[in-house]
Design goal:
InterPro entries: ARM-type_fold, DNA_alkylation. It comes from Pseudoclavibacter helvolus. By secondary structure, the protein is an alpha+beta fold. The chain folds into two domains: about 1-235, Alpha Horseshoe (Serine Threonine Protein Phosphatase 5, Tetratricopeptide repeat); about 240-350, Immunoglobulins (Immunoglobulin-like), CATH 2.60.40.10. It has 16 helices and eight strands. The strands form two sheets. It has a five-stranded mixed β-sheet. The protein has a three-stranded antiparallel β-sheet with strand order 1-3-6, with no helix packed on it. A hairpin with a 5-residue loop joins β4 and β5 (about 290-305). The radius of gyration is 26 Å and the shape is elongated. It starts with a helix and ends in a 6-residue tail after the last strand. About 35% of the residues are buried.
Amino acid sequence: MTDLFESVSDGRSLAATRSATAELDDLALGARSSHLASSLVADLPVPYSEFAAIVRRALQSPTLTGWMVWPVSSAVSASSIADGSDGAFDDGMKLLAELTPRLTCEWAVRAMLRARLERTLEIMLEWTTSDDEHVRRLASEGTRPYLPWGTRVAAITRDARLAAPILDALYRDESEYVRRSVANHLNDISRHDSALVCEMAAAWLSDGDENTPKLVRHALRTLVKRGDPVALGLLGFGSAEVVVDGPTLDRTSIVLGEELLIGAVVSNRGETPVNLVVDYVVHHVKADGSRTPKTFKISTTTLAPGASLTISKRHSIKPITTRRYHPGTHAVELQVNGVRHGFAEFDLLPEDVC
């Protein structure tokens, strides 16, 4: 990256950036990007117009691609905001749209949102009509309330309706890449505003296309796991007249690294077919001895009158990076269309017990 920018900077030496590249080994990816972005801002000239001209010359090279774009886009945000003028800010947004096909600028645009929320949202809404799917996706992904690796934008987290016009403009987008972002954005909102999510999903289903049901299913996945009745109803999983036998477990104790066999039978005792989403919930023991539930998917099916679904599901209790297991009495429940059934306990033994 340093060689490229020096070659388009009229002989300017990027001493800070060259030094920064030698200081990255012990840093995580995000910290590396921030360190390089700061060095670029220090090395490249002000005013912003000269800075942007150098970035655009670098962008003419196909070698400016992949992860090296992240610090460049962050530097663009920082430089355009620091300039303080409306023209620099708008051009900074334009330059992010030019960079994003090389690597998404979803993290860099967060700084723009925090600096000038209303103007940034106006421009991002314009992006929804871009010919480039990467730019259209940036409009949705960049405004996600809980963007992975992204800094929070408090206003959007507090009021998800601020970005709703962007999602409304994109949910029928021709690109699966864009629609996936819209679904993930709506799923983010479900963490704190399930009513808004269901309201938007219902509106989309009533005025959607052949891709909308799939998008809505993905967007409602967290609410379905929670057993939200409105979300389940939107997907056709209303109240069901079923009888559940179980869950049963093949053992009452287990050590870390082993697995349980979970069994159950779900029977339709009604006179009409029922659409079912069947999950199971494991109540894991926390460090303080209390238990916290985690929902896992089993099946989505339709049961005819008098028919039964036999469940046999293996569940591993093994170390993973996102969960730490603690010894104690865990439990399993079955969840059918959001309603919990049964309660079977098992003991997770300390690792030194075999």
